Request: fold
Amino acid sequence: MTLNQKRVLIAILSGCFIASLLFVQYRETARKAEEAGLTPAHISVPDSSAECVDCHGEANPSIIDHWKGSTHAESGVACVECHAAETAEPDAFEHYGEVIATIVTPNDCARCHAGVVEEFEASHHSSAGNILASLDNFLAEKVEGNREPFSPHSPTPGL
Ligand code: HEC
Ligand code: HEC
Ligand code: HEC
Reply:
């Protein structure tokens, strides 16, 4: 092998080495950006919700941005999938060709997350709001040591 051939060979090998370094660097940067959520998610808007996304994108861009950042959007679960309602439901109303409800309850989530909703409904969390209509808070004050007579007209009954 002549000296010149050796030089060319070394130049080619060095070129390959630098190219592989740059390639690894590029892949690493792309991976980190994806991990940090800096790359746009792969979202396809189902036809049934295309108009909702277009119009609400103008009227309430924050709702659409929030949705676009969600696992639901990535999984093709859009507005109608959650907001759809039956005409007979008390809060249902017609809105641009679809019957929807504003408030999406665990019953709506249950269409897809039946197991999670079943667990939730068996938990104390699902009835926690009932404390407002109960005397449980008064009981808690007694347990804490309050001995004043109970006055339902006091701003803090029992104190
Ligand atoms: C052409 C525009 C347009 C389209 C299409 C549209 N919306 Fe709306 N939507 C609005 C505007 C404006 C409001 C707020 C005024 C109102 O309450 O009507 C609204 C209100 C709402 C509300 C809240 C109502 C309330 O009680 O506060 C929900 C939920 C909603 N839209 C969901 C949807 C869904 C789901 C779709 C797709 C089936 C959709 N929208 C399609 C413009 C649109
Ligand atoms: C995973 C289910 C889910 C999806 C998907 C979803 N929403 Fe909602 N949306 C909700 C829930 C839950 C609420 C809060 C209802 C409440 O106030 O209890 C809500 C509230 C709203 C409101 C009322 C906000 C307010 O404060 O008055 C509007 C408008 C709305 N959604 C529009 C949309 C649009 C447009 C899309 C599609 C891009 C969408 N939603 C997708 C579950 C969903
Ligand atoms: C039309 C079906 C559908 C409805 C309705 C629905 N979801 Fe989902 N949800 C999905 C799918 C699909 C995924 C993504 C796959 C998975 O994690 O199971 C998901 C994922 C989730 C996740 C995991 C998010 C993450 O980042 O890992 C949560 C939390 C969730 N849903 C809550 C809800 C709640 C709360 C409601 C009701 C307000 C709801 N979903 C309504 C289908 C649905």
Notes: Residues 71-72, 75, 77, 81-82, 104, 108-109, 111-113 surround heme C (ligand 3) (CB under 6 Å). Residues 1-39 form one domain.
